[in-house]
């Protein structure tokens, strides 16, 4: 059994509440980092991204890739700047849900490294959806354009 000190719990609570706005900003930036990296990867290897979507039988893979990259860039900017944050969180949740359903159906892969890789992406996406819900509930915090613009 772990020892739980009332002081430690109180100190942790005070730290979290005392730094909530800064921690929300850091959380928004970390969550956006996934989309920045994904957009950068797709832009630097656009034909590879198109090929991946083509292999998944996505209709109009060039248009789909273009739309995906644009959406990832917009979501990243909105998260980092904290503008339209709650709307962005809803869009992010739906985007990641769709990406998971389209691209990370791990159960369709043969047992082994590919299935494990797709399963890890599936789990990562579930986690991102959880982060999107948390941002939806908390909002952007004090360090955001949402707060500055009223």
Any overview of this molecule?
The chain is mainly alpha-helical and 150 residues long. It has one domain (22-149). The chain has helices at residues 6-18, 20-44, 46-55, 61-81, 85-103, 113-138, 145-149. Helix 2 runs antiparallel to helix 4 (61-81) and helix 5 packs antiparallel against helix 6. The protein is globular.
In short:
By secondary structure, the chain is an all-alpha fold. It contains 7 helices and no strands.
Largest sheet: none
Helical region count? Answer: 7
Total beta strands? 0
The overall pLDDT, averaged over residues, is 92
Low-confidence stretches: none
The figure for the number of domains is 1
What is the helix/strand order? HHHHHHH
Q: Level of helix content?
A: over 70%
What is the assembly state of the chains in this entry? single chain
Radius of gyration: 18 Å
Question: Alpha-carbon distance between the termini?
Answer: 47 Å
Strand content: under 5%
Class computed from helices, strands and strand pairing = mainly alpha
* Broad shape: globular
């Amino acid at each position: 059994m772990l020892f739980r000190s009332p002081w430690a719990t109180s100190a942790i609570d005070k730290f979290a509440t005392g730094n909530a706005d800064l921690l929300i900003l850091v959380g928004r930036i970390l969550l956006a980092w996934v989309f920045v990296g994904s957009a950068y990867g797709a832009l630097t290897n656009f034909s590879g991204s198109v090929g991946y979507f083509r292999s998944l039988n996505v209709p109009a893979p060039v248009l789909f890739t273009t739309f995906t990259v644009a959406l990832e860039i917009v979501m990243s900017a909105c998260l980092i700047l904290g503008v339209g944050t709650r709307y962005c969180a809803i869009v992010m949740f739906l985007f990641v849900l769709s990406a998971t359903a389209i691209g990370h159906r791990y159960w369709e892969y043969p047992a082994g490294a590919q299935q494990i890789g797709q399963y890890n992406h599936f789990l990562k996406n579930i986690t991102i959806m959880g982060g999107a819900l948390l941002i939806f509930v908390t909002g952007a915090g004090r360090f955001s354009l949402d707060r500055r613009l009223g």
